[in-house]
Amino acid sequence: MKRMMILAGTVAALMVGGQAAAADGKAVFDKSCKGCHTAMKPKMGDKAAWAPLIAQGADALSAVVMKGKKPMPPKGGAKSEEEVQAAVQYMIDQNK
């Protein structure tokens, strides 16, 4: 019985954590990406500029961000790969 309670608690924590990670994309964007992606290309909201990037997929875009691409520094200013992935997914969702 005690194991079931622990397991249920762990599953619940993971589910909440997953939802929080999805919500973090906007916060990471606002903190680390917004300054450049509202002033430089590809700008948020420019669906034509984002279309070929989105077509590459989230994993490919995240890999570019992790390495950096002038003038963007590695990780685009984010702290972790998870933050990069959340911000990339947020930007994809906003520019479809």
What's this entry about, in short?
The protein has 96 residues and is mainly alpha-helical. It has 4 helices and no strands.
Care to describe what's here?
This protein has 96 residues and is mainly α. The chain has a single domain, classed as Orthogonal Bundle (Cytochrome Bc1 Complex, Chain D, domain 2). 73% of the residues lie in helices and 0% in strands. It is built from 4 helices and no strands. It has helices spanning 2-37, 47-56, 58-67, 81-94. Helix 3 packs across helix 4. The longest helix has 36 residues, at 2-37. 21% of the residues are buried.
How would you describe the shape? globular
Tally of discrete structural domains: 1
CATH class: Mainly Alpha
CATH-derived topology? Cytochrome Bc1 Complex, Chain D, domain 2
User: What share of the residues lie within helices?
Assistant: over 70%
Helix count? 4
Kindly report the name of the CATH homologous superfamily: Cytochrome c-like domain
- Based on the coordinates given, report the CATH architecture: Orthogonal Bundle
Mean pLDDT figure? 84
User: H/E order of the elements?
Assistant: HHHH
The description of the largest β-sheet is: none
Radius of gyration: 16 Å
SSE order and pairing:
Layout: H1 2-37, H2 47-56, H3 58-67, H4 81-94
Helix pairs in contact: 1-4, 3-4
Keywords:
96 residues; Cytochrome Bc1 Complex, Chain D, domain 2; globular
